[in-house]
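forwarding from the other thread:

> can someone predict this with prephenic acid?

sure thing
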Amino acid sequence: MSLNLDTLRLQIDSLDHKLIALLNERAQVSLDIGAAKRESKDSQDEENTHVYIPGREKQVFEKVTRLNPGPLAADSLCAIYREIMSASIALQKDVMVAYLGPVGSFSHDLNTHYAITRQYVLQASMKRFGDSVQYASQGTIADVFDAVERGRCQYGVVPFENSIAGSVVPTLDKFIKSKVKIRAETYLPVHHYLLSNSTTEAVRRALAQCQNFLNSQLKGIELIPCASTSEAAQLASKEKYAAAVCNRVCAEIYGLDILHADIEDQQDNTTRFFIISDAWDAPTVSDKTLLMFTVDHRLPGALCDGLKVFKDHSLNLTKIDSRPSMLRPWHYVFFVECAGVHGDSEVMSNVVAELGQFCLDVKIVGTYPDQRPQDLN
Ligand SMILES: O=C(O)C(=O)C[C@]1(C(=O)O)C=C[C@@H](O)C=C1
């Protein structure tokens, strides 16, 4: 059978007709869902109505992946559905998402890990909300919390932990003081790229990161520490024979070529982000809950007793961390995340009550659908 380009394009035109009609039919149902949400008795007023339902989105993504017969790749189909649901959110309500802005515009970063993390927050936000909502760049993690707490933005995206560097301390500290709730989580693999306008052979200078790669592939080159990866990219774009170790976004911003991809020393480098808001959502089939409580240092074994409460309720812990309470000297706030339980469940109210008998400031920080990538489960 000979393939005629004009005939094939006519086929695509006819399919696009059907697709557009179907997409608009779906959009109309989404508008009706929006109206139903506003009418529901749970919604206090229109302003507080939540249009972003992470548990339902997880279900939709699982369904489209399951139904996909190919040849479309599952990732491509999910990217298409990300945008369909993003448009759906925007139809129901104007949504503004606060996120930690990229390096370059701000100078608050004291350590490189934090500076690197910044570059991924917009990517993480786009992964959760797509292209149709509005984004408001913030200077610090505290600003993201404030934008949500004061109602300037309905949602905020903050980095929580990196699989290699550990917890993001400013995020933990803000949870101690803030009233915001965690509504969703998302994981983003972190990759580094070697960017340059020169060829690999010509590169003489590069930012000192990804030591293994630099030592083996670019032996003997001069390593220049930079305050941020975007500063490195900027330098590399101006200087001959220089390269920078950055994320992919910098290639576009500074007009650099990608010489090598995924050069990070640790291949499974992943950062987890939280989507914060004024409320969490209804239970799904698989939720996680993050709690915090303060342990009185004068009570021997108080932390042990606290952890025993989780054990007594057969709860599997997926994260534990601590920070100085800042309210009382030598008191520590413990953060404990447990899997398979929702914050509104009877189990969780028993846990909170039991902890309250010997811990201070017991609080559920958030409850959200479990989005751990398969290999982390
Ligand atoms: O099911 C809903 O609550 C919707 O608003 C619909 C929809 C969708 O388009 O499928 C849109 C946004 C939500 O985050 C989840 C799903």
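The first helix runs from residue 5 to 39. thats all i got for now
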